[in-house]
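Appendix B. Chain record.
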Amino acid sequence: MNRRRFSRMLAALAGGTAFQPSRAHAAEPEPDPCTLPEAIRSLRPLTGGVVPIADTERRTRIDRARQLMAEQGLDALVLEPGSGMHYFTGVDWNLSERPFIAVLPAKGDVAFVCPGFEEARARELIRLTDDVRIWQEDESPFRVIAGILRDRGVTAGRVGIEERLRFFIADALRAESPHAYVSADGVTTGCRMVKSAAELALLQRANDVTTAAFRAAFQTVEEGMTQNELERRMTSALQRAGGQDPWALVGFGEYSAFPHGSVQPQRLKRGDIVLMDAGCAVEHYQADVTRTTVFGRPTRRQAEVWNLERRAQDAAFRAARVGATCASVDAAARKVITDAGFGPDYRVPGLPHRTGHGIGLDVHEAPNFVRGNEARLAPGMCFSDEPTIVIYGEFGIRLEDCLYLTDAGPRFFTEQSPAIDRPFP
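Structure tokens predicted for this chain:
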């Protein structure tokens, strides 16, 4: 964890908000545009004409959730701020020690539970219901939640809690009311893992922004620069191209073998592998792209491993067909790598992690391309395709493009890298 992220964590703890670490470095403040290289300074926003998710689609999502609740014997969902609450209600709220909750019943209107002093702001944000119930500082929010359930006729049934609901809330709810609180993953994942046309359009735009930023940032690579300098240039490029919440991680040389970066200081030299993993959001929908190239002329060894990685990525893409299992996609990529003498299994040198993850409102969401996952692929599902090859002490190669499923086969949001010395067509 770098010093800036550590400072953010301390500030979050002191202020009562939740610190949410990620696998990438936090975006640094954008440098003075006058100091940016021309390739980045010349970028312009690519987000014109973006259409946010409409409330009509959110109501359709709620109807789908209720259908799944009926099938799975759930009487209500309890949601905290985050991607789940945003998905169903469009409301964004910072986590704190004061619970702010949405209750989505199987029958009846959605209701919100809000700290009393925040009511005015909450009513500015909430659109799908007028039922906003407050609790004062000396009152129990969990009693208010239990009251909503009673009002909706949920007296002793099963209530679903999303996977990210914090323990202190779940524990207090169990103590306050007689309901059985169980996992709601079958409902939340059941809704979110299949994307609508509107969601796919936002994911496409996030990938377009990320690709433009990559092209610009890679033009600025120079001998002697640090990995942090390239990360800052990339996040600046993402911001200037219209991306929200930009992030980037970079590894040079032997540190490119660390799948999520190394804390070691690095300075770029001729012949080094350059691996950059980066992304951003457009209207909350995420892009996640990795490119690996070389600064200077690649060696035969670097080119051979890069070409093997590309074949593994291609194998996963070919296997990602409607009706196939998530596990079979992982197996297809892993076979290419193990047949070349790496691995086997998760051993290094080789592929030490799953082949890909779901993506949408979260950079990582269910389901995953991983051994043992027998979930079947369906049209509208979205995944990363990134079968890394890790060779510690030497280098790592990762090519990552995100795809979505159609009845006619998989489609990439981005164009694949054609060669180690050409990260983009």
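Further analysis of this model is presented in Appendix C.
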